[in-house]
Write a structure and sequence with these properties.
4-stranded antiparallel sheet, globular, 13 strands, aminotransferase, single chain, 366 residues, histidinol-phosphate transaminase activity
Length: 366
Amino acid sequence: MANSTPTGVNNLARQIVKDLVPYASARSSMSGGAVWLNANENALAPSYQLDGTFNRYPSCQPKAVIESYAAYADVSPEQVLVSRGADEGIELLIRSFCEPKQDSITICPPTYGMYAISAESNQTAVNKVLLINNEQLDLAGIFATSPKLVFICSPNNPTGDLIPREQIIAVLEHFAGKALVVVDEAYIEFAPQATLANELANYPHLVILRTLSKAFGLAGLRCGFTLAAPEVINALKKMIAPYPIAEPVAQIAAQALSQAGIAQMQQSVATINALLQQFIAFAETQSGINKVWPSNANYVLLQVDNAADCVSSLIKSDILIRNQSSQLGLSEVVRVSIGNADEMQRLMQAMQQYFSNTDSKERVSA
C-alpha cells in the first residue's frame, strides 16, 4: 500500500493554496462565550418551518425566491441571482470577469476581507486604496487604478460609515465601459435610504450584493443575492454550481421574503437601531473609549487604549467582541455587534467594569 503522508498531499496543492492566508471568520477565530457580539449576527432570531421531502435536486435559481427578492428590491427577476451567501457572489464575480495573473480588483480598506482573499485565490491582483479618514473614497487613488472590478462596501464593514452617494456615482461615471463597480449592501436594511439599487437602470456596470444574514437574522442559512444587469447575471449563471441553493434554504428564504417576513425584519431593525443608539450613548461616556464611530449598521467600531486586552477581558465575562486592529488604516479598535437587550446590558456592565479597573490601574501607576 502506498505511503500517503500529509507532506505528500501538500506537495500536490497549488502554490496559491500554500501561500494563501485564509479569511479568519468570527466563528473560526473565536470560540466559547455565552454572548456572541463578534460576527454582526442578528440576535433577534426568527423562526421558520420546513415542508415536504428532500429527495429531489433543487432548482438552481428557485423561482419563488428570485421573484420575492426582485419585488423586495424593486428590480426585475432577470436582475437577480441567488447564491450561497454574498460571499459566493464575490467569488463568482471575480471568477467570471477577472483573468488570472492578468486582471486586478480595487478595494478600499479598511473593509471586508473576503474581496482580497477571493481575488488572491483566483490569482487576481488587489489594488488597495485606503479610505480618507476611514469614511470617504480616495477618488484620485481609485481612478489611478485599472481594475476589472471595484468593490465598495456601504455601509462599510467594520467602520459602519455610509460611503457618500455622490462619490459612488463618480466612480460609476469614471469606470463606465472599463470595469464593474460592485457595491456591497450587506447591511443596507439598517440604512435603506442609501441603496444604489435605483441606479441599476442608469449604470449597466453597477452590481449590488445583498444578504439575508444580517437584518433578516438568517446568517445560518447562507443565502445572498447579486443584483445587476441581465448580461451580468447571465455571465454569473455560467459559473455558479448546478445546485447552489438547498431546498430547505429556498423554503425559508421565501418565507423571510413574504410580506409578514419583511415586516418582521423591519421590526427587528427598529429594535436593533434603538439598542445601537443606546450603546453609542453609553460608549461616549466611557473614559477608556477614545473614539466611537457613527454607525449605519448593526455594529459599532470603538477605539480603545488596548484592543487585545479589552477583548481578552470581556472573554473572561463570557462575552465575545472582535479585535479589528489588523485592518489597514485602523489601530487599537474593537467592533461590537448589537445583540438583544439583555446581551447589551450585560456587555455594558462588563465594559464599565473593565474601563473602571483600567482607569484605576493607570491612576495608581501614575
